[in-house]
Structure formats: C-alpha cells, structure tokens
Design brief:
The complex is a heterodimer of chains A (408) and B (240). Helices cover 54% and strands 19% of the residues of chain A. By secondary structure, chain A is of the alpha+beta class. In chain A, a hairpin with a 4-residue loop joins β2 and β3. In chain A, α2 runs antiparallel to α14. Chain A is built from 15 helices and 12 strands. In chain A, the strands form 2 sheets. Chain A has a 6-stranded mixed beta barrel. With 240 residues, chain B is α/β, with parallel strands linked by helices. In chain B, the strands form 2 sheets. Chain B has a 6-stranded mixed sheet, sandwiched between helices. The chains are: A alpha+beta (408), B alpha/beta (240).
Amino acid sequence: MLFFSMAWRNVWRNRRRSLLTVGAIALGLAFNIFMRGIGDGFHDQMVDNSVRAEIGHIQIHRFGYRDDPGLNQTLPAPQRVAQAIRSLPHVRGYTFRVLGGGLASTTENSSGVQILGVDPAQEQTVTTIQNAIVQGRYLDSGMQRPILLGERLAAHLKTSLDDKVVLLVQAADGSMGAELFRVAGIFRSGAPEMDAGVVFILRSDAQTLFALGDRITEAALLLDSSRQVPAALDALSKGLTGEPVEILPWWRVEPFLQQFIQIDDAFFYVIVLIFFVVISIGILNTIMMSVFERVREFGVMMALGTRPRQIIKLVVEEALALGLVGIVAGSLIGSALTQYFARHGINLSSFSAGAAALGITSSRVYSELTLGNLVYSNLAVLAVVMLVALYPAVHAAGLRPVEAIRHV
Amino acid sequence: MCESRMVLVEIRSVFKTYHDHVDVHALKDVTLHLERGSFAAVTGPSGSGKSTLLNVLGGLDRPDAGNIRVGGTDLTAIPADQLADFRLHHIGFVFQAFNLLPVLSVVENLEFIPALQGVSKQKRRRHARDLLKTVGLEEVGSKRPNELSGGQQQRVAVLRAIMTEPELVLADEPTANLDSANASLLLDMMERLNREKGVTFVFSTHDPQVVRRARRVIRLKDGAVVADETQTPVAASIST
C-alpha cells in the first residue's frame, strides 16, 4: 500500500505532464472502444441483413447438398427436423423451402434465376422479404401462381405487376418443367445479386414445377440473436443424430461475409496497433522522464534497503496509476460516444451504393457497445501501459545506489 | 562482555581503486575496528576516501580487496541482492543533502524503513510520532520535507536512520548543508541518541565542530588511515 500511495503521489508531481499522458491514454482507449463499437454494429447489421434477407441463422439440408445442390438432394425426415427446431430455445421462426435454378422469361427478355419456393406465412417468420416489396404485394397462398421478382430482374425482363413470367426448369425426374406465373410483387432487398437473380414463388408451385411431390430441399431457421447460433448448432446436431443432414451456420452458408468481417477486423487491429504504438511512445517518454528526474531518490531508497523488485513495482505502479485514470476517462468517453451512435446511428446515405454492396441496406449504421469490447479494450491498454513501464522500471532498479545518490 | 562482542565493525586490509582516466586509490590497506556505541568521526581532506570508506562500510559499494564485517556479517561475502536486506535491517544512513522522500510526509518518511521491514502501520506510526516528540518536531509530522528548514530536514533524516534501531548509523557529511546553529542542534541530537539508546554513529566530516564533538577521530589521507585518536569530546554548545 505504501508503494501504491507513493506511486500515486509521484504521478501527480508533474501534473501537466501526467494529465497529457492520461489524455493520450483516454483518447486512445475511447477511439478503440468507439471504433470497435462501430465495427461490431456494422458487422452485426451486415449479418442481420443477410440472415433476414434470405439465409437465416442456420440452414439444414441433406448431407452433401452444399457441395452438390441438386434436386435429388431433398431434406430427409422433415417432420423430425421440424421437431428438432421447435425444441430449441430462442427460435424466432423456421421455414421449409424448395430451391432450384431455372430460366425466367418474358416476351421481352430472359434471365437465369434462383427460384425459392416458400410458404408465405412460414417465410415471414425468418426473412424480411415481405418488407422489401416496393410494388404490388407479398405472396399469398390464395393467389394463382404468383411470383415475386427483384427490382433489377424486373427491369431486365422489362416486366411489371400482373405481367406473365415463364419459369423453365429441369425437374427432379429429368424432365423439363415450365409454368406460367404472374408478377404479384417487385422487391428491393438492397443486395444487388438478390435483386437481379432471385425469384420467390409458392412452395407448392415449386414442388409441382420441379416434380418434387411434397419434398423440400432446405430448412432455414432464425434465432433471437446470432450469438445463440453455436448453442443451437450443438443442440440440432444432437437432435438429428443418425439423419443424413448437414447443419450449416450462416458463416458457412455465406463464407464471403465471414471473410469480409475477418478482414475488416484485421484492418481494425492494424489501425489500433499503430495508434497504440504512438500512445506507447508517449507513455514511455513520460515514465522515462519521471525516472531520470528521480535517480537520486531511487538511490536513496535502495541505500535504505529497498530491493530492486520493489523499485520495479513502484515504477510499474506509477504507470498503472496513470493507466487507470486514463482507462476510467477513456472508458467513459468511448462508452458515451458508442452509446450515442448506437442510438442515433451514423448517416451513410452518401455511401448507400457501397454500403448496399456490403449488405448494409439501411442508410444508418448503428454502433454497438458490448461488455467484451470494454473489457478487451481496457485490458489491452492496461497491458500496453504495464509493458511500456517495464523498461524504465528495470532501468531504475538497475541503478547502483552509490552512484545514484550522487546524481545531480 | 568479551572484547569480540564489543566490536561492531572490523575492517581488514581494505583496498578500493576507481578506474577512470587514471586509477584513483580511494582506500589503501585500511584496517579499523569500531566498538558498539562509538561516536566516531572520519575526517580528512577532499578525496581522502572518507565517503568511500562509509560506502563500503554500509554495503553500498564493494572493496577490491579486504574484509568488512559488521555485527559479525562479512559484507564482502554476501551476494549483492542480500546487501539490500542487510542495509535494511542493520544500517541507518544520513546523507549530506538530507534526501528525505519528497512525496512522503515527515511521519511517512520515518515509517519508510519499518514499512519495508513489514512492521504494522499502527506500530510504526506510533513509534514515529514518539520519536518526533523526543526531539520537539511533533508538530511537523504531517508536513512534506520541502516545508521544513534544512536543520529540521536533517534531524528528521537522523530519526529515519534510527527508526528501526540499526546497529550502525553512517552519516556522510551530515552538517555540510547546515548553518552552525542547526549543525550544533543536530550533533546534540545524535549525541543524545548515542548516549541514551546506544546507537553507534560514524560520520564523515570536514566540519571542525563535528570533529570536536566526536569521541574518536579517524583521519584519512590519500586513502590511508594516518591517525586514529580517542578524545574527550567538547561539550554541546546548544542543548535541545
């Protein structure tokens, strides 16, 4: 306690210098917390948009479907799958789909498309496609062969509401399937690939088109939060033991998204590292100056019987005191900033095209303050401060008392 | 009590040379004995080796040759990291420039060494306040060193040196930065501690007043002992 009390008082011997250092630590930490908060919010929005647009948090297929997504790879035991999903906690909804490829044609044009056959009521519990309708309306089981087209696809096919669109496919039995659909709605998801290449039809129509009977190719489910995915994966694996299924989290369904987040994180860490190096030099400078100014004092302390490791402890505790004040200030500033932008968001409307390409369909990005961010940021700053303090501390402990006492 | 138990410090054939641009022989074949309860002055011209003698005696520096035993412990034989421990428990230091720790109050400065020794806060604080009272400094206990006069600082430094009742107190030019009145006050205090508590004092000095007050005077010249005299000290001129 005596040493920490001394350390605390030593820190404030040169108030201006210490305040500058505390300010640098606080700003560095606040920057780190805020940037991490923006990154977390940005990534969560990307994931949430992708998950809610189509893929869901988890997808279940017949084993091998991901590598060879043919119509002969239908989902085994859908009733058991449904039961396993329903027994999970935190499930917001699930949907059974038929997926297949085909050609969409109008009198004006044609385009290769991915066809999603969905149950409209079930699908609404997983995806938000119904909210993306910009013309017409969402699918309804009572409609006669309705089809939803993306805005880009509709433009390409030069079609509009109530127009006819023919879907031409190769069915599961090898025959050619063709059906006439009528445009019920046009959606704008914000994701260019989806808007240009995905159509939604009723699941029963898809089963007829692909000659699948009552079989389906995919189950997708939505959880309350993406943080619950690992636990749900475990539970599903146990619940579907023995069934030839593959259970895929969103990051395996959309590996590009996961890779983008990892690269973005790596880029963030490089920026933070550079920032920390600059701050470290500032802290090192402060502690070195403080040590050099007190050489005689260290000499006296050692002459009186202070052991070298106690000198190291004193200098490190001084750095710790500086660091703790900086951490408290930085955490408050960083948390306040992050919370402000979590509530009000950052306007990205000027970059909407680029943001949409990254799966951000909202004009605002909202930061997110997590306990993990605060804890890791604080620990990182604390570790940097302690590490930086070691060199001057060891230098002070290595002084020879007989020489240090005479230091002027 | 037999003679060997009366001897506190034994210095045998100690040599110390500093290697700078030229070799400086700071101590040359110094052999001395100091009894417990001594009140001894080491004197001599500048560069005669006074400070070097006190440094090797206090374990702050090591001789090139020879042996130094303090209270039976051979300081030349114990490892460097144990010397700090030895100083902590057996030797008190008083420096020319007072060298109180500026961020600690007077009482906390007195508590510093016992705190290192692990003495409880309550016990060491009570002892510090008692000591301050004995020399009339009880009112400055909560002040910082820079709020005290030079004389007061040096008296506090002496109290710090004797807080844990070490066997030996080494004072390097303790009166060099004091006026004669304050120097006299300091010597009075050291004499009283020597007389009443049996603290052994060895101080290096140029100051004739200090030399006159010592019971034993060791004169050095060019690193060698040229005289070692016991004398009847002159009585204190100012009492505390």
